[in-house]
Each structure stands twice: as C-alpha cells, then as structure tokens.
Design brief:
Elements: H1 13-25, H2 34-53, H3 59-85
Helix pairs in contact: 2-3
C-alpha cells in the first residue's frame, strides 16, 4: 500500500540541523568518556590495596581487589555496549 500514511513525515528543520551537527561533530575523544574516571578510581583503589598488603597473601584484600576489577570490567563492557548501539 502506498500513500501518505506509508511514509513518515520529514524531520523538522531544527531536528534535521541537530542530526547533521551530531554527524559532523565526530565521535569525540575516547579519553573524555566519563567511564574512564570511574574505572581509573577503581583501579587506583585496587592498586592501593595491593600496596597495603606489602606482597603478603591476604584473602580479604584479594577478594576486594577482585570486586573492584570486576566492577571496572563491567563499567567498560557497558560503555562498549552503549557505543555499539550509537
């Protein structure tokens, strides 16, 4: 079936201009992504725990490091998934 109801209306001039600006702007600098600050903080905390144990085996510290590294991985994976949708 063809007719006016089969084609969507064109975007408004403002919407078309905004879409063109986003396309021309480029993806941006990955170093500016907000997830990096979150991941950096998690990795810094994991490094501090490692330094605090002074090379000794500490199961509680190892468990906390594992939690921090998992959280960092999850944050990066979510950001990559979001980027794939964009």
């Amino acid at each position: 079936m063809t007719g006016p109801e089969s084609t969507p209306p064109p975007p408004s001039p403002a919407a078309a201009a905004a879409q063109a600006a986003r396309a021309a702007d480029g993806p941006g600098d990955p170093a500016d992504h907000p997830v990096l600050a979150q991941v950096r903080a998690l990795l810094d905390e994991a490094a501090q725990i490692r330094q605090a144990t002074d090379g000794e085996f500490d199961l509680d510290a190892l468990s906390r490091q594992s939690e921090l590294l998992t959280a960092a991985h999850d944050a990066l994976a979510a950001a990559l998934e979001d980027a794939g949708r964009g």
